[in-house]
Task: inverse folding
C-alpha cells in the first residue's frame, strides 16, 4: 500500500469532479434563466457519469492511501463510489421529473452532489478528522435538501433531522477527541498501533461515540428517530436520497472503524445487539403504517439492521466485507427502485391510494412488486444474495442467535410488504368495481387506511412522471439481473485485497 | 468424457442437449409471452397454455422412457453417483453459476425425482384443461400457472441447495398470488397466512443450508458434493441442529402436525386449480426435500432421530384423519386427509431410517412406498380438488350437508368421485394401496407399534370418506338452499332439468386422466416401481453406511 503524503489528484479524481461540478452548478444556477435551469441537471449527470467511469476504471488497481494516510482508496471505496454515484445519478433523474422548471432547481442538484461527496469522504476516511469532515459534509446539505419544498411538513422534518444530526455530530466529535486523547493519533494506522495499549474503557467510550454518529447517518437504533419523520415529510427524490445514499458511506465507515486492531473484544457483540434492535424495531414499527413513505422508511431501518449484522461479523468471516458491499449495492438498486415508483406518483401518499394500481399501471406495479419482493429478500433478486451472504457471514462469526432473529424478522417483514402488494390488485378508489367481491382480510386494513387518508379522492388517471417511471422499471430489472449474475461482483469483492 | 458419451449415444436420444433446462423453462417463457397477447385474442390464451403444458408433458414422458432405457446418464460418473446415494442421475446439467458461493446451476433427474417431475407436468396440464374457460384475468392466470410450473419442475430437478431454495421460495410467491387474486371466501387472509407460514419454513430451511455450507470443506451448496462429503458426520450436535432446521422448513411445507394450520384455510379459499397444484405439487416439495436433502446429506442424524420422524408422521396420520372426520366442508375435509396422507410418507421415511442398518430391504420398501405415495396422493387429491371445484361452480358451497342424492342426476361426477375416494382410502387396485401397503410392510418391523396405530388412520379415513359418499351421493335429493350459498350467485343446480348438471367435457377431460393413471399404477405398478427402487436402494445404502 504506497502511502503518499501528498494528495494524489488522480486517485481522488471522482471526488474532485463531483466537488467541482457542485461549485460550477452553484455559480451557473445564479445566472441561468429559469427555463434553462435544466442545463444544470445535465452538467450534474455528466459529472456523476464521468466520476463513475473513472471509479470503474480505478477498481482493478491495488489499494492505496493518500493525503498523509488520511484517505484510503480500496475495494470498499470503489464499491461505495459505484453505489453512491450510480444512486445519485438515479436521484438526479428522479429530481428532474419533480423539480424540472422549479426556480431553485439547480440548488437541489448542488445539495445532492455535496451530500454524495460527503458520503464518499465518509467511506474513504482512514483518519478520524476526515471522518468528522465527511460527516458534516454528508449531513448539512441534506438538512437543506429535506426542507427544500419550504412547506410545513418539510420544515418540521428538516428541524428534526437537523437537531438529531447536531446531537450525534457532537457525539462523534467527542468520540474523536477521546480516541485522540487515549490513542495519541487520529489516523487509523496510528490508532492500530496505540489502541491495544490504551485504557480499554476510554477507548470503548470513544469508539461508541464515533459509532453513534455513524449510526445516525445509517439510520440505525438508537439514532433512528429522524428517519420516518424526515422521509415522510420531505419530497420523494430527497427521501430516496437520504434513505439510501448516506447509509452506504456510514456503514462502510463503521466497518472500517470496526476492523481496527485494538477495538474492544466485546465490540462485535455490541454491533450484533444494535443490529438485532434495529431490524426488530424497524420491522415492528412498519407493521401498521398507512403512508407509503413511512412504511418505506421503517423498512430501510430494518434493512440497516441486516447490514449491521454483517459489520458484527468483522474479522471473524472473510465473507463479511464482500457481503456488506454486495448487500449495499443490491440495497441501493432495490430501495431506489421502490422510491422511484413513489416519485412517479407524488400524489399517492397512503397505501390505500395504491388500490387498483395494477390495473392502471401494469409495468410500474410489476416493478414495485419486484422491488418489494427484493426487499423481502426473495430470490433471485440482488438483496437475496446480499442476505444469503450476510447470514452466512454472521453464522460463520458465531452469531447464530442473530441469524435466527434476522430470519424471523424477514418473515415478519413479509407482512407489511404484502399488505402493500395486495392493495395493488384491489378495486380502485374511484369506485369502479372489479367484477369480483373480496371479503375478509382486506376490510380492517381499508378501515384503518381511510382514517388517515387526508388527501381526498385521488385521480385514478394520474399520469406517472415519465423519467421516474422509467427509472423504476429499469431499477427493478437491474435488481433481478444483478441477483442472477451476482457471481462476477462477488468474485471481485472476494479476491480484492481487504483493508 | 467424449468417448464415454459415444458409448451411450446408441441408447439415448439427447444426452448432451440441455433437455432438462428446456423442460423446466419452457413454461415460464411461454407464460411471459402470453402477457403480450392482445385483449381481443384472450380466447387464445387457454389453448396456448394447454399446448405448452402438453408439449412439456410429452417431453417428460419421452425423458422417462429414455431414462428407463438407460439413457441420459452422463458417462462413467453415473456409477459413482449411484454409490453416492442419489441413484443414477440422468440428464445432468452443471455449470458454475455462483462459484464464489459454492453454488451452481446443477440439475438432473433420478428415480426419486422423475415420478414427481411427471406428476407436476401432468397436474399442470389438467389444470390448463380445467381452466380453459377462465374469465377473470385469463392472461395473468395462465402466466402465473406457467411460472409455477417452471418453479415446481425446477425444484424437483435441482441438485444444488441454493437452486432448490430459489424455486422453493418462488413457489410460495406464485401460489400467494393465485390464492389472493383468484381465490374466494377470505382469500386474502388465507393467502397471507400461507405466505407467512411457508416463508418461515423456507427461512428455517435456508438456515440449515447455510450450516451445511459452512460445515463443508471446500464450502459448497452442491447436493451431490455435500452427499459425498457428509460434512457433519463428526459433529452430531450441529448435525442434529441442521436436521432440525431443515426438517422444520420441510415439515411446514409438507405439512405435518403441528405445522399444518395454514393448509386448510389456504385450500378452502384457493381456486380449484390452485388447490390441485398446492396439494399435488407444492406439498410434495416438502416430502421430496426429505429424500433429496435431509436423508442423504444428514444420514447419521436421520438415523439418530428417525423415531422422532416416525412419531411426527404417526401424529399427522391420526390427527389429520380425526380432524377430517369432524369437517362439514368438503374441501376442508380433503385438505385434512392430505395431512393424513403426508403423515404416511413421514412415517415411512422415519421407519426407513430405523431399519436402514438392520433390514435394508424393509427400509427400501418403505422409501419406495413413500415416493409412490407422493405420486398417488398427487393424482387422487388432485382429482378430488378438481371435483370440489366443479361442485362449487354449481352449488356455490362446499358444505356437504347441502347436497344429497347427487348420484342420480350427476352420474359421471359421482362415479369419478367414488373412484378418487376409494383410491384415497387405499382400496387395492388403485395407486394408494400400492403406496400404503409398501409403507406399512416396510415400517412394521422397525416400528411395530406406530405402524399398527397408523393403520387406524386408514380405518378412520375410510369411514369418513364413505360417510361423505353416502351423504352427498345417495339418499334423498338435496340442493343448496339460498342461505347456504357463500355468494349471492344463483345456483346452476346439479340436477335441475335443462341445465348441464353433470361434468362438462373440460372437467371430465381434466379429472379422468388422473384417475386412469391412478388405476394404472394400482394395477400395473412395475413401470413405476422399477424406476423408484434403484434410487431408493441407493438412498438406503447411504443412510445405512452412516453411524447413527
Result:
Amino acid at each position: 500500500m504506497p502511502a503518499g503524503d501528498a494528495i494524489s489528484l488522480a486517485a481522488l479524481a471522482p471526488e474532485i469532479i463531483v466537488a467541482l461540478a457542485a461549485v460550477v452548478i452553484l455559480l451557473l444556477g445564479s445566472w441561468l434563466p429559469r427555463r434553462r435551469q435544466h442545463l444544470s441537471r445535465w452538467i450534474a449527470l455528466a459529472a456523476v457519469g464521468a466520476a463513475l467511469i473513472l471509479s470503474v476504471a480505478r477498481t482493478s488497481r491495488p489499494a492505496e492511501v493518500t493525503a498523509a494516510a488520511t484517505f484510503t482508496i480500496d475495494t470498499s471505496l470503489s464499491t461505495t463510489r459505484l453505489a453512491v454515484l450510480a444512486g445519485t445519478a438515479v436521484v438526479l433523474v428522479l429530481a428532474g421529473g419533480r423539480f424540472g422548471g422549479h426556480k431553485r432547481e439547480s440548488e437541489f442538484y448542488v445539495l445532492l452532489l455535496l451530500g454524495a461527496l460527503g458520503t464518499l469522504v465518509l467511506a474513504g476516511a482512514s483518519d478520524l478528522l476526515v471522518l468528522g469532515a465527511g460527516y458534516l459534509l454528508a449531513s448539512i446539505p441534506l438538512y437543506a435538501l429535506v426542507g427544500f419544498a419550504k412547506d410545513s411538513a418539510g420544515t418540521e422534518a428538516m428541524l428534526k433531522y437537523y437537531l438529531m444530526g447536531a446531537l450525534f455530530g457532537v457525539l462523534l466529535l467527542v468520540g474523536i477527541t477521546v480516541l485522540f486523547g487515549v490513542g495519541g493519533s487520529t489516523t487509523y494506522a496510528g490508532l492500530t498501533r496505540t489502541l491495544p495499549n490504551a485504557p480499554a474503557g476510554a477507548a470503548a467510550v470513544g469508539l461508541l461515540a464515533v459509532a453513534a454518529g455513524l449510526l445516525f447517518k445509517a439510520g440505525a437504533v438508537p439514532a433512528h428517530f429522524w428517519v420516518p419523520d424526515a422521509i415522510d415529510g420531505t419530497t420523494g427524490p430527497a427521501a430516496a436520497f437520504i434513505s439510501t445514499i448516506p447509509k452506504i458511506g456510514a456503514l462502510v465507515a463503521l466497518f472500517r472503524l470496526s476492523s481496527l486492531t485494538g477495538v474492544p473484544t466485546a465490540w462485535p457483540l455490541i454491533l450484533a445487539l444494535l443490529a438485532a434492535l434495529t431490524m426488530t424495531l424497524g420491522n415492528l414499527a412498519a407493521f401498521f403504517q398507512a403512508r407509503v413513505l413511512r412504511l418505506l422508511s421503517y423498512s430501510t431501518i430494518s434493512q440497516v439492521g441486516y447490514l449491521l449484522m454483517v459489520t458484527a461479523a468483522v474479522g471473524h468471516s472473510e465473507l463479511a466485507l464482500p457481503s456488506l458491499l454486495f448487500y449495499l449495492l443490491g440495497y441501493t438498486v432495490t430501495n431506489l427502485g421502490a422510491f422511484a415508483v413513489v416519485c412517479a406518483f407524488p400524489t399517492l401518499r397512503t397505501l390505500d391510494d395504491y388500490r387498483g394500481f395494477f390495473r392502471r399501471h401494469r409495468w410500474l406495479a410489476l416493478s414495485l412488486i419486484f422491488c418489494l419482493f427484493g426487499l423481502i429478500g426473495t430470490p433471485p433478486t440482488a438483496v437475496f444474495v446480499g442476505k444469503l451472504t450476510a447470514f452466512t457471514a454472521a453464522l460463520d462469526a458465531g452469531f447464530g442467535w442473530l441469524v435466527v432473529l434476522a430470519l424471523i424478522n424477514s418473515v415478519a417483514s413479509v407482512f407489511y410488504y404484502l399488505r402493500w402488494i395486495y392493495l395493488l390488485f384491489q378495486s380502485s378508489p374511484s369506485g369502479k368495481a372489479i367484477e369480483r367481491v373480496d371479503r375478509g382480510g382486506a376490510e380492517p386494513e381499508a378501515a384503518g387506511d381511510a382514517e388517515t387518508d387526508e388527501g381526498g379522492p385521488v385521480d385514478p388517471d394520474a399520469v406517472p412522471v415519465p423519467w421516474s417511471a422509467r427509472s423504476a422499471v429499469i431499477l427493478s430489472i437491474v435488481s433481478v439481473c444483478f441477483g442472477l449474475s451476482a457471481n462476477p461482483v462477488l468474485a471481485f469483492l472476494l479476491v480484492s485485497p481487504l483493508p | 468424457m467424449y468417448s464415454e458419451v459415444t458409448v451411450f449415444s446408441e441408447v439415448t436420444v439427447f444426452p448432451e442437449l440441455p433437455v432438462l433446462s428446456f423442460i423446466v423453462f419452457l413454461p415460464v417463457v411461454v407464460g411471459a409471452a402470453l402477457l403480450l397477447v392482445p385483449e381481443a385474442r384472450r380466447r387464445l390464451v387457454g389453448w396456448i397454455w394447454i399446448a405448452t403444458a402438453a408439449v412439456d408433458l410429452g417431453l417428460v414422458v419421452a425423458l422417462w422412457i429414455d431414462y428407463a432405457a438407460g439413457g441420459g446418464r452422463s458417462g462413467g460418473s453415473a456409477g459413482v453417483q449411484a454409490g453416492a446415494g442419489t441413484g443414477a442421475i440422468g440428464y445432468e446439467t452443471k455449470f458454475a453459476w455462483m462459484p464464489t458461493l459454492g453454488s451452481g446451476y446443477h440439475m438432473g433427474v433420478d428415480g426419486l425425482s422423475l415420478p414427481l417431475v411427471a406428476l407436476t407436468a401432468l397436474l399442470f396440464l389438467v389444470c390448463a384443461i380445467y381452466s380453459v374457460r377462465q374469465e377473470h384475468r385469463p392472461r395473468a392466470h395462465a402466466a402465473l400457472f406457467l411460472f409455477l410450473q417452471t418453479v415446481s419442475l425446477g425444484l424437483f430437478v435441482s441438485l444444488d441447495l441454493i437452486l432448490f431454495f430459489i424455486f422453493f421460495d418462488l413457489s410460495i410467491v406464485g401460489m400467494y398470488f393465485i390464492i389472493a387474486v383468484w381465490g374466494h371466501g377470505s382469500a386474502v387472509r388465507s393467502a397471507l397466512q400461507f405466505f407467512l407460514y411457508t416463508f418461515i419454513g423456507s427461512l428455517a430451511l435456508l438456515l440449515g443450508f447455510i450450516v451445511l455450507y459452512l460445515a463443508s470443506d471446500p464450502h459448497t451448496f452442491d447436493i451431490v458434493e455435500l452427499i459425498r462429503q457428509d460434512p457433519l458426520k463428526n459433529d452430531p450436535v450441529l448435525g442434529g441442529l441442521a436436521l432440525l432446521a431443515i426438517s422444520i422448513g420441510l415439515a411446514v411445507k409438507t405439512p405435518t402436525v403441528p405445522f399444518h394450520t395454514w393448509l386448510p384455510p389456504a385450500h378452502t379459499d384457493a381456486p380449484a386449480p390452485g388447490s390441485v397444484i398446492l396439494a399435488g405439487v407444492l406439498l410434495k416439495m416438502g416430502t421430496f426435500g426429505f429424500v433429496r436433502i435431509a436423508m442423504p446429506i444428514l444420514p447419521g442424524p436421520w438415523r439418530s432421530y428417525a423415531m422422532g420422524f416416525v412419531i411426527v408422521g404417526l401424529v399427522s396420520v391420526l390427527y389429520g384423519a380425526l380432524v377430517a372426520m369432524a369437517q362439514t366442508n368438503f374441501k376442508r375435509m380433503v385438505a385434512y386427509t392430505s395431512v393424513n396422507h403426508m403423515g404416511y410418507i413421514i412415517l415411512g421415511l422415519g421407519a426407513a431410517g430405523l431399519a436402514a442398518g438392520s433390514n435394508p430391504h424393509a427400509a427400501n420398501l418403505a422409501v419406495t412406498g413413500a415416493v409412490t405415495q407422493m405420486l398417488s396422493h398427487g393424482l387422487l387429491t388432485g382429482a378430488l380438488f378438481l371435483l370440489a371445484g366443479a361442485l362449487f361452480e354449481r352449488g356455490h358451497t362446499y358444505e356437504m350437508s347441502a347436497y344429497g342424492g347427487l348420484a342420480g342426476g350427476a352420474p359421471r361426477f359421482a362415479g369419478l368421485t367414488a373412484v378418487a375416494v376409494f383410491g384415497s382410502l387405499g382400496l387395492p387396485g388403485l395407486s394408494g394401496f400400492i403406496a400404503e401397503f409398501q409403507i406399512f410392510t416396510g415400517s412394521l418391523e422397525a416400528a411395530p407399534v406406530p405402524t399398527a396405530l397408523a393403520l387406524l388412520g386408514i380405518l378412520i379415513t375410510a369411514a369418513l370418506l364413505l360417510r361423505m359418499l353416502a351423504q352427498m351421493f345417495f339418499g334423498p335429493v338435496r340442493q343448496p338452499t339460498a342461505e347456504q350459498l357463500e355468494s349471492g350467485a344463483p345456483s346452476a343446480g346439479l340436477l335441475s332439468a335443462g341445465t348441464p348438471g353433470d361434468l362438462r367435457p373440460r372437467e371430465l377431460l381434466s379429472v379422468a386422466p388422473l384417475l386412469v393413471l391412478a388405476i394404472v399404477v394400482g394395477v400395473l405398478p412395475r413401470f413405476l416401481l422399477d424406476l423408484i427402487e434403484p434410487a431408493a436402494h441407493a438412498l438406503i445404502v447411504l443412510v445405512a453406511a452412516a453411524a447413527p
Confidence is low (pLDDT under 50) at residues 431-457 of chain A. Chain A touches chain B through 37 residues (CB under 8 Å). The first helix of chain A runs from residue 13 to 31. Residues 127 and 187 of chain A are 4 Å apart (CA to CA).
